[in-house]
Amino acid sequence: MGEGWFYIIVDMLAGAGVTFAAMPLLLKFCRTKGYYDLPGGRKVHHLAVPRLGGVLFMPAMLVGMVVSLLFYAKGFQGILALKVSSLLMAVGAFLIYIIGVVDDLVGMKAGHKFAVQLVAALVMPFCGLLIDDFYGLFGLHELPLWFSYPFTVFIILLIVNSINLIDGIDGLASGLCICILAAYVWLFSRMELTFAYVLVAAGLLGTLAAFFCYNMWGKAEKGTKTFMGDSGSLFLGYVVAYLSIKYATSNLPVLPYRPEALMVSYTLLIVPTFDVIRVALSRLYRRKPVFGADKTHIHHVVMAAGFSMHQAWAVIMALFLFFCVWNALLYGVVSDTWMVLSDILLFCAFHFVMHRRAGRRSQAA
After folding, report:
1. Which among 281, 311, 57, 275 is positioned nearest to 159, based on CA atoms?
2. For the residues of 196-249, what is the DSSP string, one character each?
3. Positive or negative torsion for Cα 243, 184, 76, 256
4. Rounded alpha-carbon distances, angstroms, from residue 206 to 92, 99, 214
5. What CA–CA distance (Å, rounded) separates 262 from 331?
6. Contacts of 158 (CB under 8 A, 6+ apart)
7. Residue 32: what are its φ and ψ, rounded to 5°?
8. What is the phi/psi pair of residue 142, to 5°?
9. How confident is the model over 274-286, as pLDDT tens digits?
10. How far is CA 311 from the centre of its chain?
11. Which of 30, 162, 193, 226 fits a disulfide with 53 by CB distance 3.0 to 4.6 angstroms?
């Protein structure tokens, strides 16, 4: 895979280059048309910020992939085979992207948005992309189709919406996904017959890194800051779900048997998915609407504990890295089941500490 890194770097640089070149034009368009994310409610920003930054994710990723393949010594053959399943996957990604763009431009009812997400999620298992093996987690191995199909759809929706909902402070969704995508670039590059997935991850990684600069360090008062909006977060979540399930699935003709596959994908997604599950269970316990809006997500909790927005970003990113290192150390020492249980306890302990900090600050105020 030595020479392959040249094409990976070309892919990332092309995706980043398109984003850096197009972003000023997009920001000007937002200012002209008034497409801003306004402050208020549970939002933490205090100035109007253009919300269409994520519109560039899909086109920039595709440009990066195409440019890389133009340099590719072996040409397009075997990399972008036009199978029916590949075309259906592309349709699913396009549907997710379009509903995000529509929601950012004119708004979209939650029910309609979820219905399209469901259709896009159904595409993956229909194309044979299934979580079909638990590799011993909870004592389970190969899973029956009647369970793996709906379970895979549920996981896709969970991942897509967890990335969407954790996009609440500067650089958080993009920072987490940069790490996740970088991991998949490395993981897929170590195997045969998986270069197409490397290109997908690398192209999106490049455009996301460029977006991160505008989102994290751009200045709203100077017109250089942007948010990814639903067009970016939903598409990002769908691609991450695709790569995660592709890596976790047991598919011997394409991927070698890897007993750690499921735990790797699971570990990379702990922070966003655990947070969505925690918030949903908390709302059910308090008899609040599960899909309601409040300030109970992880970034709200950490900021309530006294951290600034950028400090909260650092704390949550550190939590992500902690789980990666913790699970890497535990793997092979304890069973996968005990590893998951330890992750749940540690995640709960983290929130207990943050809530205690927030409570003490509230009493002192």
Report:
1. 275
2. HHHHHHHHHHHHHHHHHHHHHH--GGGT-----HHHHHHHHHHHHHHHHHHHHS
3. negative
4. 22, 23, 13
5. 12
6. 273, 276, 277
7. -65, -40
8. -65, 135
9. 999 999 998 888 8
10. 21
11. 226
What distance in Å separates the CA atoms of residue 175 and residue 7, rounded to the nearest whole number?
23
Q: Helix-strand-coil percent breakdown of the chain, rounded to 5?
A: 70, 0, 25
3-state secondary structure of 360: helix
Could you give the CA distance from residue 271 to residue 316 in angstroms, rounded to a whole number?
A: 8
* Helix axis angle, 110-126 to 145-165, nearest 10°: 130
Q: Which two tokens stand for residue 165?
A: 């909902």
Q: Does residue 298 have a pLDDT over 90?
A: yes
Question: What pLDDT score was predicted for residue 58?
Answer: 96
Distances (CA, A) of 234 to 70, 104, 202: 29, 11, 18
DSSP 25: H
| pLDDT of 162 above 90 | yes
Quote the percentage of the chain above a pLDDT of 70: 92
Q: How far apart are alpha carbons 21 and 60 in whole angstroms?
A: 10
Encode pLDDT of 319-360 as tens digits: 999 999 999 999 999 999 999 999 999 999 999 999 999 988
CB atoms within 10 A of CB 302: 25
Distance between the two ends of the chain, CA-based, in angstroms?
Answer: 57
343-348: long-range contacts (C-beta < 8 A, 24 or more apart)? 343/270, 343/274, 344/274, 347/270, 347/274, 347/278
Contacts 24+ apart (CB under 8 A), 153-158: 153/118, 153/121, 153/122, 153/124, 153/125, 155/131, 155/241, 155/245, 156/121, 156/124, 156/238, 156/241, 156/245, 157/117, 157/118, 157/121, 158/273, 158/276, 158/277
Interatomic CA distance for residues 163 and 172, integer angstroms = 9
- Measure Cα distances from 33 to 26, 30, 53, 105, 221 in Å: 11, 5, 14, 10, 17
How do the domains of the chain map onto residue ranges?
Answer: 4-268
Rounded CA gap, 110 and 188, in Å?
Answer: 35
Sign for the pseudo-dihedral over CA of 243, 246, 247, 249: positive
Count of Cβ atoms closer than 10 Å to residue 248 Cβ:
25
